[in-house]
Design a protein that fits this description.
By secondary structure, the chain is mainly α. The chain contains four helices and no strands. It is elongated and about 70 Å long.
Length: about 100
C-alpha cells in the first residue's frame, strides 16, 4: 500500500471542493448582477422621470462595462469570469433608453 495515496486523494477532494466554491461564487455574482440595476429601472418607470440622473455618467458606465466584456471575450476568458458585466451593461442600456424617453 502506497502511503502517499491517501494524501493524493485528499488533495484531489480539496481541488474539487475549491472548484465547487468558485463556481458557486461565480453563480452568486451573476445572480446579484441581475438585481443590481433593477431598483433604479423600477424607480424610473414608477416616477416617469429621470431627474437627478446624468446622461454622461450612464453612457460612461455602459461603455466601460461593455469594453470590459469585449476585452474578456477577445482574451478567451470563460463567461463566468465576466458575465456580470454583460448583465450590468444590458441594464445600463435599458436605463439609457429610459433616460432618452423620459428626459425633457
Amino acid at each position: 500500500e502506497n502511503p502517499a495515496e491517501p494524501l493524493s486523494t485528499v488533495m484531489a477532494d480539496l481541488s474539487e471542493l475549491k472548484q465547487l466554491v468558485v463556481m458557486a461564487l461565480n453563480c452568486a455574482m451573476l445572480a446579484g448582477s441581475c438585481l443590481m440595476k433593477l431598483p433604479q429601472i423600477y424607480n424610473i418607470l414608477k416616477a416617469g422621470s429621470v431627474v437627478g440622473l446624468s446622461e454622461a455618467w450612464l453612457v460612461n458606465e455602459c461603455i466601460a462595462s461593455l469594453l470590459f466584456v469585449y476585452y474578456n471575450v477577445l482574451s478567451g476568458y470563460p463567461f463566468m469570469s465576466f458575465g456580470e458585466n454583460v448583465i450590468v451593461g444590458l441594464q445600463n442600456m435599458v436605463i439609457i433608453v429610459l433616460f432618452w424617453q423620459y428626459s425633457p
